[in-house]
Structure formats: structure tokens, C-alpha cells
């Protein structure tokens, strides 16, 4: 069973465990078992991704998992051609979203279910 960690200061979700939050450097985490089913609460189309993500022009969304945990992650959808709706169902996966000094950092990626 996968256990993920949510930073108590900024809400960043991390998997696997990191000693410090990759977003804000916080050290207090709440552990939870991520669900793959999520629903979109809100989103933004951004040109410049935060947290050092490599790609540009992607969609960042806030979702709520079926276990009520809220998290932020990338929505893997082409905002120009595909429809994004608040409340749409998404499937979550954990994938490497960036490389830091050769170490792969995993993050949440959502796709339409
Ligand atoms: Zn944090």
C-alpha cells in the first residue's frame, strides 16, 4: 500500500517521503493513503510552472480525492483542445515530474477518468 505525505504548512503532496517539503522546506507531514479517484475543484492554466517543473503551458489543478484529501497536481490535458470542467472526474497517478540533481521527484498527475 502506498503512503503519501502532505506538508502541514503548504499542502504539498509528496511521494515517496522526503525529509523536507520540496515546496516550502517544512518538516511536518500528515501521511495518508492516496486514492486514484479524484474530482476537480479548481484549476489554472499556467505558462510557467512552479516548483521547477520542466514543461510549460500545462494545467495545475486542485482536486479532492474520494477520501476527501485535497491536493494540487498537474492535469495532463491540452487546455487548448480538450475540455476542462470543474467537478470532472480524474484518475491520479504518481509520476516523476521533475529532476533535481539527478533525483526524480514524483508528483501527482491527473487525467480525465
Ligand atoms: Zn510545504
What about the largest sheet? 5 strands, mixed, barrel
Based on the coordinates given, report the CATH architecture of one domain. Beta Barrel
CATH topology of one domain: OB fold (Dihydrolipoamide Acetyltransferase, E2P)
Order of helices and strands: EEEEEEEE
The number of helical segments is 0
With strands numbered from the N-terminus, the spatial order across the biggest sheet is: 4-5-6-8-7
Percent range of helical residues: under 10%
> Can you tell me the overall shape?
globular
Separation, N- and C-terminal Cα atoms? 22 Å
Share in β-strands: over 45%
Bound molecules: zinc ion
* Low-confidence sequence ranges: none
Q: Structural class of the helix and strand makeup?
A: mainly beta
Summed over residues and divided by their number, the pLDDT gives a mean of 82
The counted number of beta strands is 8
Short description:
With 113 residues, the protein is mostly beta strands. It is built from no helices and eight strands. The chain is globular, with a radius of gyration of 13 Å.
Amino acid at each position: 500500500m502506498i503512503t503519501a505525505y502532505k506538508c502541514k504548512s503548504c499542502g504539498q503532496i509528496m511521494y515517496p517521503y522526503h525529509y523536507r517539503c520540496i515546496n516550502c522546506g517544512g518538516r511536518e507531514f500528515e501521511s495518508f493513503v492516496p486514492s486514484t479517484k479524484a474530482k476537480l475543484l479548481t484549476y489554472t492554466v499556467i505558462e510557467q510552472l512552479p516548483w521547477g517543473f520542466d514543461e510549460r503551458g500545462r494545467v495545475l489543478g486542485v482536486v479532492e480525492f474520494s477520501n476527501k484529501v485535497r491536493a494540487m497536481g498537474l492535469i495532463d490535458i491540452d487546455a487548448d483542445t480538450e475540455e476542462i470542467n470543474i467537478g470532472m472526474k480524474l484518475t491520479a497517478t504518481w509520476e516523476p515530474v521533475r529532476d533535481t540533481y539527478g533525483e526524480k521527484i514524483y508528483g501527482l498527475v491527473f487525467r480525465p477518468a
